[in-house]
Amino acid sequence: MAETVTETRPTRLLTREALVRRKRGWFFGLTGDRVAKVVFQSNAAISILVLALITLTIFRDAIGFVPLNQHNLEIYRLAGLEFTDHLRREVEDYSAFNRYLGAVRSDRFTQLQRSGVAVAAAQAQLADFDAYANRVADAISAHETILGTLTETATSLKERQKVAQDTAIARADIERALPSATPVHAVELRRQLEHLVPEQINFRTEVQGMKDQLPELKNANAALAAALVEIAAQTPHFDDAALEKRMTRFGELLREFPARLEAATTRMAAWDQLKPVSAMESLTAFAFGRDWITASFWQDWYGVLPLFFGSLLISAIALVIAIPLGIAAAVYISQVARPAEQRFIKPTIEFVSAIPSVVLGFFGIAVLGESLRKLSQLPALDWVPGFPFSERLNATTAACLLALMAVPTIFSLAEDALNNVPRSFKEASLALGSTRLQTIVHIIVPSALSGIMAAILLGLGRVIGETMVVLLCAGNRIQTPDFTAGLGAAFQPVHTMTGIIAQEMGEVVRGSLHYRALFMVGVVLFLISLLINWLAQKIVRRYRIVAS
Fold first, then answer.
1. pLDDT at 27
2. Is 195 in contact with 162 (CB distance < 8 Å)?
3. How far apart are CA 474 and CA 457, in angstroms?
4. Burial bucket for residue 400 (CB in 10 Å: 0-12, 13-18, 19+)
């Protein structure tokens, strides 16, 4: 047994020395495995940390939007602006009648000129129509007078409240600085405090004067209803069927308007000035609001819907263009093209992704937008919905460029999915007598469908997150697209969520309501991108399971 101990002791010593050497190498990072492990773990940790900081920053500044917008809506209600807007909407809708008649007159004047009637003679023939249009415009004058009085009272009250609020903030700042001020400075601060006395506004009493005009408004409603019945009975007639149909519809709109006006008056009578504004109401005003109005003398609105629909419209048009091009190119390169064609076409498509977006934006402004506008004015294309259009910067102009940017993403990922289809599938199909086209359509593409769908979703993420192209080429009109125009909505100027952030973030005051509203838009973009990437990863995982 002693001999056994003697023989094993050197082995144990050697083992300890080897362990020491390994520990020293592990500690100083001398082994390749340890270096690789530290590098990859560090990269992963940094990525997680950056993502956490981005998420925290966006949501921290966005959360403050809800109470600030809640206060904004409270002042809107207390000052009577909400009360006035019930009437304002109806008066603005009535002004659309004037635009309606103006469009009819323009079309009739064009018809007369095309038939050879001189300009003076055409104007003379439209004199009765112009007199009718003037009667329609003048009928609402009493309501416009009442609206002007209500507007003046409400804006004055809102301005007084703003002055009182600013005075209270200045007074609070002086009171905080007073304890640490020197005796001489403290005397000056106290003197300022004597003059900084915020006005105490009794909103209920102030707004009561606006409510007292309801009887006058009801009398104006009755007079307008009688006038519109008479005006509708005297609607002009045309020998042209299309114009006659439009004027018949105009008479129907005139007869329907008094009921709408009466409903607005009923809402004004039932309006509750002291009804509290909830946090949910503040949030829904953003999520479902149709207006994005800033720096307004009347009321600031932060509704994301026009920006969301603008982004959605551009993304949809871009994908309609990019998906067929990207998928077809991927199918051709992976299944049909010869090696020489692959070496030329594939790098060329992927090179497009290296072009700076600002360069594509300049191309859209200088070349593409004007070219599409001139193309739309060709008489042979009058049958196309939305043609001709006058705005060279619109949703289609931006979408064409975004499609060009999305094609490389869709192409690369779809090609990988097609190449990962087992070769035995193709060989079995060909062995059964199928043609190459039948094999591609019925075997290869369906087998790679999950990967193709993931490519499309990632292409959507590329499109919806683009900023510079849409900022330069989309027209930047903050208005929900008129989808009643059908395909013509594709040629309307729009604004997008990414564009509004890039355009306005540099001009807003940090911490203001406008500033936090832009972060709320960023949250919406963040959630959309997160959803798109989650769906793409889920589809990719499903594709891998099927492929395996």
1. 47
2. no
3. 22
4. buried
Domains of the chain: 2-65 (no CATH), 82-278 (no CATH), 305-354+408-547 (1.10.3720.10)
Residues of the chain with pLDDT > 90, as a percent, come to 53
Which residues are paired to 494 by β-bridges?
475
Q: Would you give the DSSP letter of residue 475?
A: B
Helix (H, G, I), strand (E, B) or coil at 311: helix
- Tell me the C-alpha distance between 236 and 129, whole Å: 7
Q: Helices 279-287 and 65-78, interaxial angle, to 10°? A: 100
The DSSP element (H or E) to which 301 belongs, if any, is strand 301-302
What does the pLDDT read at residue 450? 84
| Average pLDDT taken over every residue of the chain | 87
- Measure the CA dihedral 505/506/510/515, to 10°: -20
Structure tokens at 62: 């966005």
Select from 467, 509, 510, 522 the least CA-distant residue to 62. 522
DSSP β-bridge partners for residue 302? 292
The H or E element containing residue 292 is strand 292-293
| Residue carrying the six token digits 């990863």 | 537
Q: Any idea what DSSP says for residue 421?
A: S
CA neighbor of 122 nearest in space, from 103, 108, 101, 102: 108
| Closest to 458 in 3D by CA, of 521, 406, 508 | 406
Residue of 499, 522, 465 whose CA lies nearest to 63: 522
Q: What is the pLDDT of residue 26?
A: 47
Judge contact between 146 and 213, C-beta under 8 A. yes
Residue with tokens 């051709």: 332
Question: 135 near 231, Cβ under 8 Å?
Answer: yes
Let me know: does 463 contact 314? Beta carbons within 8 Å: yes
422: left (phi over 0), alpha (psi -120 to 50) or beta: beta
